[in-house]
Write a structure and sequence with these properties.
Elements: E1 4-8, H1 13-29, E2 32-39, H2 55-70, E3 76-82, H3 85-95, E4 100-104, H4 112-115, H5 119-126, E5 131-134
Helix pairs in contact: 3-5
Protein name: Universal stress protein
InterPro entries: Rossmann-like_a/b/a_fold (IPR014729), Universal_stress_UspA (IPR006015), UspA (IPR006016)
Organism: Komarekiella delphini-convector SJRDD-AB1
């Protein structure tokens, strides 16, 4: 049913909590797992890069996630992309022909004010496949 699962990750607590759900889904369906980290492009008026999203930090994040799944007997592919997170997640889902996107939710989209700022809400609206949100 879910041949390919895309799991966008960042350093949030919500992403770490969603990892358990990803493990369960991937093991149950024997899915291919693709881990994605999206580094947001800096805007022209913000010349200094955020040290929390340096290439080294992103590489370490992806490697740690791959190791976490490897300990569960799951082989994971890793992708690193640059761009607007919601659009990039959906583009990658389309590119890899994902059958499911699993992601954590920070709760910003639960109110009208936060809905426009929520990457999760944007992914739900733009996704080429079902999206499982882990609260």
């Amino acid at each position: 049913m879910f041949k390919t699962v895309l799991f966008p990750i960042d350093q949030s607590r919500e992403a770490r909590e969603a990892a358990d759900v990803v493990t369960n889904v991937v093991q149950k369906y024997g899915s291919r797992l693709v881990l994605l980290s999206v580094v947001e492009e800096p805007s022209p008026d913000e010349p200094s890069a955020d040290p929390m999203v340096s290439p080294e930090v992103v590489a370490k994040l992806l490697e740690n996630a791959r190791n976490l799944f490897s300990q569960q007997g799951i082989q994971a592919e890793v992708l690193e992309r640059q761009g607007k997170p919601a659009f990039t997640i959906c583009d990658v889902a389309d590119e890899i022909e994902a059958n499911l996107i699993i992601m954590g939710c920070r709760g910003l989209g639960l109110t009208e004010e936060g809905a426009t700022d929520s990457v999760t809400t944007r992914v739900i609206n733009l996704s080429p496949c079902p999206v499982l949100i882990v609260p």
